[in-house]
Amino acid sequence: MQHSAAPDLADLAHTHARPAHWLATATATAAVVALAGLLQPGPAGATAAPGPARPAPAPEAAGADYPLDCGGGPRTVAKRATGDLDGDGNPETVAVVHCEAGSGNPPHGVYVLTRGKAKDAPARVVATLVEPGLHRNVTELAVRDGVVHATLLGYSTPDVPRCCPDENEQVSWRWQGGAFVRAGHADARGA
User: Fold this and answer.
1) What is the H or E stretch that residue 30 is in?
2) CA dihedral angle for residue 156, residue 162, residue 163, residue 167, rounded to 10 degrees
3) Which of the 8 DSSP states describes residue 14?
């Protein structure tokens, strides 16, 4: 039987862990962690690319001052839809508003609202899409891909009872060249 020339590992003094060894290892590790914390880069400065700006919330329809004469009576916001209509990254609100009436179908106005200039200013009307004097009622309203879509009901003659509109028109408005441009298709419903 041959004996190995290498000493038995159990006989080596440095292979036995003693409390002094553990203390030295823990101290060295703590020093490395502390030094790494001190050498971290500072906060990003002006050279960092800004993140995308968050759009402002859509204007609130309830607080706006509408160009609608209700003879001192209250107004009702019947429908509203929001979306970025002018491509500036901030949403506008489209509001369908009418005077409160005890009965019948009061005519609707359709208005585009934007945020007030001051931080806490109420929304302001920047466009009228449907004048109440046209005697139309809005049954559907939506904003899709920057386009306002609405269904308007109306009357072909003054003899048509106000309860029963006989005209149905699908319309849309798109912001183009600094103004809202209307497109539509009318379907008269027979009497």
Assistant:
1) helix 19-38
2) 20
3) G
